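Long-time lurker. I teach an intro course on protein structure, and each term I like to show students one example going from raw sequence to a predicted 3D structure in token notation. This year I'd like something fresh instead of my usual example. Would anyone be willing to generate the tokens for the chain below so I can use it in lecture? Attribution to the forum is fine with me.
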Amino acid sequence: MEATMGQSHGRESIISGPSPFDTLPVDCISSIISFTSPRDACNAASVSKTLESAAKSDSLWEKFLPLEYTSLIPQYPRVFSSKKELYFALCDDPLLIEDGKKSFRLEKASGKRCIMISPKEVSITWGSSPEHWQWISIPESRFEKIAELIDVCWFEIRGGMHTRYLSPGTRYSVYIVFKTKNGCPGLGDLPVDAGVGLVGQESPQKLIYFVGPRGRDRRRDVTRPEARDDGWMEAELGQFYNDSCCDDISLSVGKTNTPDWKSGLIIQGFEFRPVKTR
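-- Reply from a regular --
Happy to contribute to a lecture. Here you go:
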């Protein structure tokens, strides 16, 4: 992001002549930039040497860090030379919180919070029965134990989270993060019911695929899964607006109206992250 933040519409920013900001004290410039965003701060650094110095200051990047950042530092095996370096570490290296039940990181461009909850944090029908679900450990997962679907007829997951963990005044998307085995028999190519919404209110419903049929059999009204940079797949369950961080959010995903036995789904967790703005 640091490289792209120094660009404008795909071209390098080209500034001719001194910037009007160069006459201001560096601390004053840092204070002004702190009212923008991390992306804007990185872009400002390309304008002039004075702005570059202001855009690197610890006082600026501390404004972009979460209030509890000091409690997160001990989890890193290294010492940070600046608050900016710490900020990008919180973006690139998700940290486990809440006794390993949640994963925390920051969105690079905005500094808004992204939270993934472990499958241990949700209710999985038959999840405690080894003949139906197994709890496994794999190196590429953030969590110590994740859920693998072995064989069920009734596939249903319900859960949620309090919005205090998220950034206020932000619209969020919720994703199920998963992998499939052998095409996810009995489930992969079928539209699966999904929903996200405020507790106490009716949740908007949608349909998702875990794999999806090819060609004409693929329905346009069903959300397709997408590949993530970390090697997992994800499908969006829904969106909600986090107004004041004082609500509970519910999520659901399931397929209960077919008699087929279902298997081959590995769930890492459910991720809450800000909706991308275009």
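Some talking points for your students: Residues 26-93 form one domain. The CA atoms of residues 190 and 209 lie 6 Å apart.
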